[in-house]
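Supplementary Text 2. Reproducibility record for the structural model of the 440-residue chain.

All settings were left at their defaults, and a single model was retained for analysis rather than an ensemble. We include the record here because the model underlies the residue-level annotations in Supplementary Table 4.
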Amino acid sequence: MDFPGGLRADGLPAALSDPARLAAVEASALLDTGPEEVFEDLASLAARITGTGRAFVTLVDAEHSFWKACVGVDAHVLEDRQNPVEQSFCYFLVGLDGEPFIVDDAAADPRTENHPSVGPMNIGAWAGYPLLDPEGHVLGSFCVIDDSPRAWSPADLATLETLARSVAAEIHLRRMLTSAQEAQQRSADLAHTLQAGLLPPRLRKVPGVEAAASYLPASHHYRTDIEVGGDFYDLFHTHGAHYAAVLGDVCGKGVQAAQVSSMARYTVRADAGETASPAELLDRLNAALLAQSAPRFLTAVYTAFRFTGESLSGDIALAGHPPALVRRADGSVEPLGIPGTLLGVMNTVRLTDVPFELFPGDLLLLYTDGATEARPRPDAAPEETQAIFDEEDLAAALAASHGMDAVATIAHLAGVLDAHHGGWASDDTALLALRVPPPS
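Retained model, structure tokens:
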């Protein structure tokens, strides 16, 4: 029998070994997998409508025909659900480049009379249509077998052709779903990589001061996109005995937000040694954002401080950012900072330095608005719905952490937020704590 693509050395169609076709078969992810209801149902329907008793959904690689569905054949383990490709009629479909293969009398048809499976498989008549992917590669066949010779009716063949298209569509749909999931995972990996670049791998150690931080990205269980967030924080040495901490939130998400976050973080580091004033430092950041025509605005809180040996003394400024919180050693909590103008919008901004001092046992908390706008998850039952977690709730949670060190405090707050939103964060949430430890 002549095949358009010629023959292999073993006399079988060369198309069986076509690399592009084999890659398409492998991409179906169906080879050597167990039976599934959708394929069994379609095969059963074909056997019932044609009255043959046997029907197959078959994937064909270079050496084997694998029966994804085999109605009318007692084959339950994977080893029994396949045969060598030379013992299968399916190679005809592959070699015919997508044309159907119809045989009314297998023992008398010159194309199949000497085929090794006619007798052992009791093939009287055979009718099959190719399973094609969108590029036209033949993945395998959808076929029925009758024990006795028969003339296939136009209705039989039309049914098989329709069901073959249904099987091919199911295979394609699964492949597209897998590709989408893989693409989503790649996007997630890229977002996590970009996000990691916005945050220090570990906090700088400050003599005499405990420091801890956490970052929780917004949840994506109910979104099709996964994007890097704009929250960032940093803790670094400026000069001499002086250090600084910054925490910010860029409007929006995605690559542009990541670019602005990165630029803001490194601008702050670069200018921190030239001014001791947080307000002046944030004003410089505003000028840098405007000069680079950054497409996003941001809010930020910046504090410059030094440890005197007995206390932590510093100044703090807010740029459109919620006030910091101070938890005193006695458990009381108070806001810190005067609201100021957000950055990246106006040439002139109103920013104010506010001095503060932390004594042994006191803790300073910086946070982004993900910590004060936590919402219940969208699928929460009505009885589980809670109000938005606001600044008063955060202050109460911080007060409840009285006596905890910086690391335990951050863990406590993260746990409270998680309990409130049920593991679904509506926005990115960054937390940064500095604490002067009490005497041992």
